[in-house]
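Figure 6 in text form: structure in, sequence out.
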């Protein structure tokens, strides 16, 4: 499937792997893919981030993701569901951290020495890549660009989509920012620095 990725999309994936390595994570996750997207400049996804004001609020996005890691990867929706049955997730996190130290519930990170071996993609991250292919096909595009990766992230339930939605990035707002109300991908995925010239025009 990676042969169908544009140069820009491949750079996002490479950046995601880099984020996983730097944080000592066992796997490459949806969060790492988002960080890889946020690192890029001059891309279609970067244009959407700028248009939606997320580029200027990157620190807020990163803090929200860190808060979710402290909750063991549970989303705010999960916290509300637990509250509905009388379980205070915030109190549980506080209690565990009092006993075992801050960040004790964080998952996906090895303790001790950093791991420098190959990192596989978590199932959820793999699903994002597959969804990006599905979205590209649905738009009539022959290649998968960074914009398709972003649309895949905001279309899947979970912490990353929730954090992005809290910052104004839903599937609808992202699609509108990248493609306009009705223009589709008529100009190709030029957001990848011109590397998407092979994209088919989609109405």
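Output sequence:
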């Amino acid at each position: 499937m990676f042969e169908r990725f544009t140069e820009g999309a491949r750079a996002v994936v490479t950046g995601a792997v880099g984020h996983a390595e730097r944080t000592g994570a066992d796997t490459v996750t949806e969060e790492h893919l988002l960080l890889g997207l946020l690192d890029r400049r001059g891309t279609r996804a970067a244009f959407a981030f700028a248009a939606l004001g997320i580029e200027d609020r990157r620190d807020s996005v990163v803090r929200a993701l860190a808060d979710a890691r402290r909750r063991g990867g549970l989303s705010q929706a999960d916290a509300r569901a637990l509250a509905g049955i009388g379980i205070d997730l915030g109190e549980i996190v506080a209690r565990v951290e009092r006993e075992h130290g801050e960040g004790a519930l964080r998952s996906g990170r090895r303790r001790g020495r950093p791991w420098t071996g190959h990192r596989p993609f978590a199932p959820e991250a793999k699903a994002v890549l597959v969804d990006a292919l599905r979205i590209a096909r649905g738009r009539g595009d022959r290649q998968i660009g960074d914009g398709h990766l972003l649309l895949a992230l905001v279309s899947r339930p979970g912490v990353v989509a929730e954090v992005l939605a809290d910052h104004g990035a839903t599937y609808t707002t992202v699609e509108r920012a990248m493609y306009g109300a009705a223009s589709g991908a008529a100009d190709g995925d030029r957001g990848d620095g011109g590397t998407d010239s092979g994209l088919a025009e989609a109405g």
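Caption detail: The chain is about 55% helix and 0% strand.
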